[in-house]
Amino acid sequence: MSRRSAPYDFRWLLLGAAIAGTSAGEAGDVQIHGFIGQGYVLTSDNGYYDPATSDGGSLDFREIGLNVVCRPEERLRLGIQIMSQDMGRVYNNELAIDWANAVYTLPVQDWEADLKVGRIRTGHGLYNDFRDLDLSRTSVFLPESVYYNSWRRLYLALDGVGIEVRSPDTAVGTFKLGAVYGTQQIPTDDPILEVYQETVGSSDLESQWGVQLSWMPFEGLTIKQSLLAMEDWTIDFAPADPTAEGALLSDDSPTYEEWITSLEFIRGRFSLASEFTYWKNAGVSTYTGATSDATETDDWQQSGYGGYLSAGWEFTPAWKAQLMVQSHNLRYSGTYPETYANSEQTRAIGAAACWSITPHWLLKAELQRIKGIYFLRAADQPTPGEYESEHWTMLALKTAFDF
Fold first, then answer.
1. pLDDT tens-digit profile of 275-303?
2. pTM for this one?
3. 5: which DSSP letter?
4. CA–CA distance from 252 to each of 287, 295, 332, 361, 400 (Å)?
């Protein structure tokens, strides 16, 4: 499928910097950071977010972002990040506010406590808070067995309030506890909703919340447990012929929960990371019945579990390499979702290398051999809904610059 990418509009990025800088006034310094990345993805079979990846590869993988942070006073921090991303068929260089919030540090003796309000990051898993920072990892992509790219909006941040509490050093290490609560505005063309392969009329998520507990028993080791939940998610569809028997009218999901158990160990040049996820979802789909004035419902349930294990080594300050294995298992009942019919089990093994040309400019490459199609989307295939092979290979190259 051919399409023309929307042009970047730097005026919005400059506007974000101006707003945050103005808020700072003369009371504190303003820190401005940005990043630019360009990628190339080639697959032996199947389309990875773009049908063109299996036909000579695709350059439609890029992002540009700007974040501004300032301190109008000692205990108050204001920040905003605006980002434009293109990932094959999704996002299409549309500018969006990733996060924009105010953080107030409470005057608590020994402990540290931050209150947050605005569009705040969820803190879900090890890497969601800085998933766009290429300098923080060796691989091109985060492991999709845990960090599914088309769900980026829900994973990264929510509109609401949060609190983070950090303990002082103790005999058993340090602890960090976080909680967030709010909601989410999900556009009808968001890639999250493309799984239905139907025209979405409206999407309404009542609430989203999460909790995280991290334990650092000694320097270099982090153990973390995270929970992220969505409640009362209603999606109304706009079928071409709503009177046709079997036309999908709505989908109601009262609850979605995902747990992530994380471990990260860094010692010298060696790094080890592993995360395990378990999620479950249930809902009711409503269809047009045998007559146009009648409806039928279908109760469905989904659950999945998976994870990854990665090991990295820093050969020199400029060269790093990583090996990774990952898997995901999906279980469902009911007729929804038919697009997942062949994606029960997915396995992958891969390697990545990163060369830091300068402290702020890098090149990286990643190669994965994959069995299964959970990492793929039906709408991105050369023939939508039809996968070319269960066994496939992906090569990803990327260059990125930050300042």
1. 999 999 888 888 888 776 778 888 888 88
2. 0.87
3. P
4. 12, 14, 16, 45, 40
Closest CA to 343 of 335, 359, 331: 331
Determine the pLDDT at residue 340: 46
- What is the distance between the alpha carbons of residues 29 and 74, in angstroms, rounded to a whole number? 11
Phi, psi of 46 (to 5 degrees): 70, 155
Q: Which residues pair with 64 in a beta bridge?
A: 36, 84
119 close to 79: Cβ distance less than 8 angstroms: no
- Integer Cα distance of 403 and 398 in angstroms: 17
pLDDT tens digit sequence for 146-182: 998 888 888 899 999 999 999 999 999 999 999 999 9
- Which residue, chain included where needed, has tokens 């109304």? 236
Query: With b meaning 16 or more CB within 10 Å and e meaning fewer, what string describes 159-180?
Result: bbebebebeeeeeebbbbebbb
Domains of the chain, earliest start first? 10-402 (2.40.160.10)
pLDDT at 283: 86
